Amino acid sequence: MDSRVPEIRKHLKKKLDAYRYEHTLGVEFTCQALAMRYGYDLDKADLAGLLHDSAKRFEDPVMLQKCLDRNIPVTAEEERDPSLLHAKLGAWMAEHKYEVDDPEILSAITCHTTGKPGMSLLDKILYVADYIEPRRSKADNLTAMRKLAFIDLDEACLEIMESILVYLKSTGCRIDPMTEAACEDMRRVVSERKKETAGEASAVTGITHQDKEEQSVESVKRNGKTCSRGFGREKRRRRKNY
Predict the structure, then answer these.
(1) pTM for the full model?
(2) Please, is 38 exposed, middle or buried when counting C-beta atoms within 10 Å of its C-beta (0-12, 13-18, 19+)?
């Protein structure tokens, strides 16, 4: 365990409300579980989960002003909905307040709400952990997502992104362009990987789609001949009996 973790936990427990702190511990735990599953550094996953919502202690107008005061880039969508800024401000706090300078951890915290194109393994771990942690209960697809997260992380990311977009559209909420860009990129990643997997399987077996079709036709022919020969023999046997 990173030596900073116990002190950070103590500090966050004082600063966050009880629900947010319990959620934080749940995400921290889930990040480490996913890191074990996918062979990622446990300490990095621990810090990312622990600090991802550190800026949630502030009200929206305060977050917006803090970002402006610290020259943290603010998009038009974030200015309309400053709650989105807790990720960027949280990454700034992780670096300047909690002395975490690892770029992978800071990236994961920065994009844990919207995702982004070209997500790293830790980006995906935190993004998924934030959605499936044990204290979450409102999403309809949680049971399936919790299972999928430990089977295929990319598929889980995509399923979560698509379900969030469907929810936002159904409620008439504004959608951050980064969320749509992240989802589109994840569709590409999953699609390309499936094609590669299919290609590798064909290469191993040496059987192409055309080969399979030809084998199927030949099988039908052989079975047809076999049945005909069998039927002929049966007819001959019956004649002898008569």
Answers:
(1) 0.81
(2) middle
